[in-house]
Amino acid sequence: MSQLPEALKTRMQKQGYHFAGRHSAVKICEYTANGLRGGILCYKHAFYGIESWRCMQATPAIGCDLGCRFCWRIIPEEMGINWNELNAVEEWDDPELIVEKMLDEQRRIVSGYRSMAETELKQQRWTEANTPKHVAISLTGEPTFYPKLSALIAAFRKRGISTFLVTNGTLPEAIARLDPLPTQLYISLQAPDAQSYDIVVRPKIKNAWERFTESLRMLSSIKTRTVLRMTLIKGLNMHNPEGYASLIGTAKPNYVEVKGFSFVGGSRNPERGLSIQSMPNHSEIKEFAGKLSSLTGYQYTAEHQPSRVVLLSRDEDSAKRRIIDFAAIR
Asked: Which CATH code for domain 6-328?
């Protein structure tokens, strides 16, 4: 594949995506922009100590094998594009090339914020933003489709950049091949049982639930910080806490992030069947997180009300060490 379908590429560019090669992209995060403006920082800053203004939101693969109803991103099928087209790549870009292009595009993006750097704090942050220290490999698509993902992580690590890899867990074989491992590995946990899973994430492949649960079974033996990230939607997946608790017990992650759905972007497509009423408020998120805490023994550790997210930790040791020392990236 020499390039994305033109209609998809044009729409993504209008939404602020910057392409880094043939199948990779970056886009500024709201909290990165807030950090440059001197505003509210990301929940990852509150939970794990990252500097939001130095974080890059990126992906090495545009296609995804799920069509999650809550996803704020573009689902290509909604534009008449088959997801298989996006991964029929004849030659994947080199990881070093991708990282350099991503960094170039991130600097291009933050250059527009220089005029806002009218205070010493903002000037310092703008200067630092030109040298990213963290990358969230979670922008759009499923990053484990990129066959050179380990080398990409290594290329970021070589530059002193920590990696937050988010996967939907449908490619357990790709997770098993990761070497080196990311600084923090997330698997998205979006439903408590197989029936709900099909309704919420709308898989495009066979045996998606079985592949997802295989990834969960692997997670407890992976030697890096691990997280299950939940997106809760009223009327859709805020039920069966016992089912969620069972899956958490299988995966045994260091942390569980219990987060509320936001009715933004692609999730507003009427075909998805969601509305602003589908958004749980922060107190509802805290209540559901409390149920999970009681069922799993995971400890309530922190919350970030602007993001409507609660952090649960596996044990007291995880809770105490949730602030990561990114000066010593593994």
From this structure: 3.20.20.70
